[in-house]
Amino acid sequence: MALMKRQAARTALAWLLATQAPLLASCGTKEHAQRTEQTTSAEQTPPASTPAESLGAATPDTIRPRPSSATTTEPAIVDILRTVNTIAIRSARLARARSASDAVQAYATQIADDYAAANRKLDQLATRLGVKPQSNPTSRALITSADHARESFGAKRGAEFDRAYIENEIGFQRQILDLLDRNLIPAAPDSEMKALLATQRATVEAHLDHANHVQSALSP
Predict the structure, then answer these.
(1) What are phi and psi of 62, to 5 degrees?
(2) Around Cβ 2, how many Cβ atoms within 10 Å?
(3) CATH number of 73-218
(4) Is 117 helix (H, G, I), strand (E, B) or coil?
(5) pTM for the model
(6) Which of 50, 74, 166, 173 is spaced 20 to 30 Å from 156 by Cα?
(7) How far apart are CA 64 and CA 14, in angstroms?
(8) Chain centroid to CA 59: how far?
(9) Calculated CA dihedral for residues 11, 12, 18, 21, nearest 10 degrees
(10) What does the pLDDT look like over 82-110, one tens digit per residue?
(11) What is the rounded CA–CA span in Å between residue 33 and residue 189?
């Protein structure tokens, strides 16, 4: 009798395992698929950028305009070039009024003359093409940055002013070279505009080289 009960129990257990096996296998497969999906999703999703990364690690002292398609139209390009020329001329005039250094005076005079000539050429081309300058985020960011920088080095006097002015000029000329190379020259739709931008790029590069030499001469 006891033997018959044990055999019946084993039979019942075997039946229970047989009926539950597909369900257990299905659960295991589903759980594995969910883990795989979560892992793949985590691997494919890039980590969220920090504020510094999203802004190019910009600081309050360094405002970096980020040109978009709206700021690389021909009217916007004309406005950006005019803004660049005006910024350089204003800083040069301040340097000519403040500096007692012959090297700084010579540099500032060249800057004022070259960018005034660049503005005249720009106005002539814009008139010939029938293009009117259009305000844009890049121009506004350049103006904000330049005003902040001029306020900073303009508060200095003597040799400190000279070094601060030239240091700012080096940063400014590098910024304009980058703007020309990455955005303005590739975006210019007109061959004459491209030629003007290429000419301005050569001028900016020469100014950067000149500023580096002046900075070396000013070093204590």
Answers:
(1) -135, 95
(2) 6
(3) 1.20.1260.10
(4) helix
(5) 0.69
(6) 173
(7) 74
(8) 12
(9) -140
(10) 999 999 999 999 999 999 999 999 999 99
(11) 52
